[in-house]
Amino acid sequence: MNDLSQANKGTPRTVDADVTDRTDAEISHAPVSADSVAVADQDVLVGLVERTVEDAAAPFAPETVAGLAALKRKDLAAFEVLRTRLKNAGCRVTALDRAIDCEIGEAGDGAVNEADILVQLAKSVELFRCPDGSSYADLEVNGHRETWPVKSKTFKRWLERHYYELERRAPSAFALQSAMGLIEARAQYDAPEREIYVRVATVDGHLYLDLCDEAWRAVEVDPTGWRVIERPPVRFRRAAGMQPLPEPTCGGTLDKLRAFLNVRSGADFVLVVAWVLTALRTHSGYPPLVLSGEQGSAKSTFSQLLRSLVDPNTAPLRALPQQERDLFIAATNGHLLAFDNVSALPEWLSDTFCRLATGTGFAARQLYSDLDEILFKAAKPILLNGIEEIVTRPDLADRAVFLVLEPIAEESRRAESELWAKFETERSQIMGVLLDGLVMGLKKLPETRLDKLPRMADFVLWATACETAYWPAGTFSAAYLGNRDNAVDDVIEADPVASAIRGMMQGRETWSGTASELLIVLPRYADAGVPKTKSWPPTARSLGNRVRRAATFLRKVGIDITFSREGKTRTRKRTIHISHVACLPAEGDRTQSSASSVPSGSDAMASVTQENALSIQEQDTQRADNVAGGPRPLSYLTARAMALKSGTAAITDSADANSSYVSVLAKPVLLPWKGRL
Fold first, then answer.
1. Are residues 569 and 637 in the same domain?
2. Given this model, what pLDDT does residue 127 score?
């Protein structure tokens, strides 16, 4: 007999002429074996096609469905021929298939329901639910545990595979759908509740880092050390694009990491390490890392290197999202968000980054539903890079860490393939030395105290607890406070309103007035043409909002701004008071001077004395030579002044080497010109 089971769903199939010319009775009788005749009533299928033309519901009669089910079990070829004729006669064969599959599973020969078999197979897995209502299953695969959502394709394929191994046939789509619904109901009402994590987890004072390898192993970190474990007590979720981390090994140093990063000073490298250690931990304080520099400063490579140490991904760097929903979906499916070649941040995205850095939620209407919502909750590390000054709004700048990368000379460049090949050989030991920092952080964090907590206090406390694994105490504080000092000036210069207020206050002690009055006065102190651009607030209300945003950073440079309401109830007006205050020393100066600041000419002359000798780390000098294309004259080397008020030794630029040499200018020199744009 010809095999007629290959159906073309788009058009009627072409079958052998001797088959198509047969009558319905011949089709229903001839191919059916003796066993099938015994099961199915022959009279039920005789004339079925003609009855279907007159009544499309004829094939759905219970006795007809039973007959079709018996025919399908015993002679699939004959069933397919009849099914095609029924379809051409106007029968809804998709609905008929579901009815036949249900009939096959439920009775006939006394076989067990397919859905029941699938549900029974699922009893071998451990189900649980998350606080957000999603359901998960722990599967045993090749001797290790894997965790997948119940609705995922992976879990569905696992069920299908085990059903085939048991029954040697595939389950019907109807039975599979019914079983999946029942399994999810069991997870929701009968299973325990657990948290699910992506890449990193913190539970009971222990850190867990998902290696994302085929064996689903993780690294466990506690105050006594770190180790690779087979079955972590926490559950990790694998999202599309996640790549494995290398298995960490001992014996590395931070020098191996610095050799791959284009940092211009020891202070910048301290901040990079502190940021990576923070990204390897779950909490609600991730300062965005903002990299800037001209073309050829390896910003993209720098970003990819850091991501490969925290959360490797097949798409490590991405463009900015177009809407908030896209950003939160990316945050849900990855631990680190890295955006490449950013030219400017829209205001809504800058505000969202602020919320995402400290932890926030997002709700959106679920598709095809009027009442249900999809909830996203996340706090994620963010990495941005670009040529221009990306962050200009004070609220985001006050949370961020800024690094400026120097251009790399052509003769000092390496092929990207060579760099990555070398990095892969060192990555395991680099991971090991970073884990050593996490161990120190867990050990020291309970006893770490600071006199004053700046913005992003959790980040500062954690980095301070970790720093003694590599450097003397106080190293991170000096580098971070110096970085914040530089950020204040940069943001004020980038904000035309803040810059104009600072210019207006240079010739006066106080100013008071309404926002409308300030809108008239302030443009004369702004740069030429700026008040006519879109960056200048067009109304008094928008100007007042911009002044509020700039108040925090202006206060740090000695300009205090307060708001008050004056007058009676009906004539009350809002007044802005701007005045000079006693300018406190810059944050970095309260501990030690910024490691990235350049001394003025008088400071450079004073530095020739023995008491204020400048400390320069050998690695910084080597890196400066590479950037400039060769050794520079001693007179051009502008070292970072590290003299502390407490008299302690310079620590930031010698942070990762603990060794430095002193360079003293033998005679007065002309320093390069430096000024503000």
1. no
2. 95
